[in-house]
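Q: How would the structure tokens look for this protein?
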Amino acid sequence: MTMSKALVRSAVGAVLILALISGSPLFAGEAIHNGVDLWMTVAGFAQTNFADEPLPAGFFCEGSQPFTGTVKFKGAPLTVEPAGSLGAIDTIVRRLDDAKFDAKGEATTRIQLMALSLVSTKPIETSCGKYDVAVSLTGKQPVTLMKIFQSDAFGGTYSAPLELNVRAVFTPVNGDKSGRREVTRRLDLGPGTHSVWAYVNLPRYKQGVRVDTDGDGKPDAVLPAASNFLAGVSPALLKSPPPLPRLAATTLGGTDTTAPIVCPAGQCPYYSCHCAALDTNPQWNQSSTGCADDHLHCIWTCAPSGATDPSGKVVACAVVAQPATGLE
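A: Here is the predicted structure in token form.
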């Protein structure tokens, strides 16, 4: 017996109505495999402030004043084997669990910082001279909870507060090794702005890549197998993952508008910023805390073409998006 077209349309309509009433997605949410998310820091848009926890008097040399200033950072590519296999990646977050979506299209996984490599954009000034600053992870890293939301068959958004234990090493510019100093800190960062993801079927890196996780310049841990989850790219039908980012000659605000990342068609290089205070998941183009002058870490992502930042400026793919209001 042949079913009439009208009956087919009625059946499809009924399914749509039931799905809308129940709140269930119309697509099957493929489970997200555990793995790592690879990031490149936006130069000059990572910073830490020592006002609340000053470096004590005498830290740099006898008679030096307490240091309460702000240090701005850029990423330094992680040391990896094979060399260059992760491009200009300087930050790695590990998703510890497979994440299965529920009927509402929501999933969770534990996350943990795996590697971090930042250096100051310029030396800091002290009464004892100028110092370069390098930041890496130290000791056991805290675990936080990442919430993943599927908005369509191609991906969605997520909320991922970060907690990390870091070591900051201060090295005299004049080369005096005896003047080297270091300090450890615990940082808590709220969910990032523009936290988006897309499914991907092909691996972004080869099996067996080793990475330096403690800043000593020696790769000491093997990355897990590449996942089907690509953070930092708005939902899209991806035939292959975007290439890993490269180092750029200029930063935001420069005359060269070349971005260090390549985005899928219809998406533009933008950034996601984690700020100091914990907060609920913000909209993609809003700051979770206003990004006050304390702790901040912005990473390159891909925004939909035509999106607007908090100042109302439209993101255009022809140029790098300028800093959003409150992020400078």
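DSSP finds one helix and 19 strands in the chain.

The CA atoms of residues 35 and 227 lie 5 Å apart.

Upvote if useful.
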